[in-house]
Amino acid sequence: MNTTDTANSAADLQQGGERSSKEVVPKVYLVSFILVTLCFPLWGFANDITNPLVKAFSKVLQMSTTQSTWVQVAFYGGYGVMAIPAAIFIKKFSYKAGLLMGLGFYALGALLFIPAAGAQAFAPFLLAFFVMTCGLSFLETSANPYILSMGPKETATQRLNLAQAFNPVGSLLGMFVATQFIIQKLNPASDAERQALAADGSAAALDKLSAITANDLEVIRNPYLAIGVVVLLVLFVIAIKKMPRTETVSEGLDLKGTFKRLLANRNYREGVIAQMFYVGAQIMCWTFIIHYGTEVFVQLGMTEQAAEAKSQMMNIYAMIIFCLSRFICTFLLKYINPSKLLMLLAAGGMFFTVLTIFLDGVAGVYALVGISACMSLMFPTIYGIALTDTGDDAKLGAAGLIMAIVGGTFLPMAQASIIDMNTIFDSFSATKASFVLPLLCFVVIAIYGKRSQQVN
Fold this sequence. Notes:
Blueprint: H1 3-15, H2 17-21, H3 30-37, H4 39-50, H5 53-60, H6 65-68, H7 70-92, H8 95-111, H9 113-119, H10 122-149, H11 156-164, H12 167-182, H13 191-200, H14 203-240, H15 255-264, H16 266-287, H17 289-299, H18 304-332, H19 338-358, H20 361-375, H21 378-386, H22 394-403, H23 407-419, E1 423-424, E2 428-429, H24 430-433, H25 436-451
Antiparallel strand pairs: 1-2
C-alpha cells in the first residue's frame, strides 16, 4: 500500500461515521498491523530466553550471581544507548526504516553467538547481547508508536495492548526453548563439581572442565542461531511489503523543542519513570524466580539440577498466566479506564510480592508466579498513557519510554547483590528479602496509575 492509498483510505474512514472511529484496527491497516505485530513476539523471545542465562552463565563460567547479572546489564543497556539514535533515525526516515534497522541489528547480534561460543569467554557474549538489543531498541521504538498510529486515537491504547498481547507468546516460546534446549541440555555437573575440577589444577581435570564448558556454551549458542535466521526472514518480508506511512517525515529535526515539550509534560515525564520501574520489576521477577525456586526446591529435597529445571517450569507457568492475563486485560480496557486498571493491577502486584517475601515453601513460589498476572497490562498501558496527546513528538517520546528499559540493568544488579549475601537479619533468606525491590517498583507504578487518571 502506498502513501496515496493510505490517504484515500483514511478519508474513507473519516466519512465512515461513528462505527469506523471506534475500530481497533481499521481494515486499511490490517496487513501492516499483522506484519508489525510479528515483531512483538520476536523481542519477547529474545528477552525471555535470555533471563534464565543469568543462572546458566553463573554455573557454566563459575561466576557469582552479581557477575552473571552482567548479562542483563549488557542486554538492557542496548536499549539505553540506542533509543535516542533510533528515534532520530525514525523521525528522519520512517517507522518501516526503523523496523528494518532493528531486525538487522537483532540478526547480527544473534549470529555473534558463533564467535562468542568459540572464544569460551564471557565478554564476547556480552557484546552479542548488546548488539542484539541495539536492534530491539530500534524495533520497539518503531513498532509501538507505529501501532498506536494505525487507527483512531480513541482505540490507540487498546490497539497497542492487542499487539502487545502477542509479545508474551514469544516470551513463552523463549522460556520453553531455554528450559528444553538450554537448561536441560547443560552438563549435569553441579557448581561444586565444576569448582572441584578447577581447584584440582591437574591437566586431566582442567581438560575435563574445558570440555564441559565448551559443550555448554555451544548449547547456549544454538537457539540464538535459529532465531537469527527467523529474524532475517521477517526482515525480508517487511522489506518487500509496501507499508502505510502514518507519520510526517521530518527534514529538519527540532530536537531541542521536542525535548523541551516532552520534559514539560508531567504525564509523559512520570510515565518514563514508571516504565523504568516496571521493566525493573518484570526482569527481577522473571530472572530471579529460578534462584528463588531453586532455593525452595533444594530445601524440599530435590537435586540442584532438578530444582533449577522445576524453577524454570514455574517461570513458564508465570508466562502462561501473563499471556492469558494480557488478553483478559485488553478486553477489560473496553470498560475500565486504563490508568485505573493500571493502579489496581499494581496494587495486586504489591500484594503478591509481600506474599513472596514472607510465605515459606512452595506457597512463596506460587505467589511469585502470581505476580505475572498483575504485570501483564503494565508496559503497553504505561506506554499508551505517557504518549497521550504528544502528537509528532511521539517519535522521540517513544525513545524515552524505550530508554526506560534500562531499569532492567541496575535494578536486577541491585537484587543480585542482595541475593549473594545468602542470609540477612538472623538467617532470613536474602533471596526472599531481595524481592522488596520489585515491591517498591509496584508502589511507583500504582502512584502513576492514580496520578494519570485525569489524562484518560
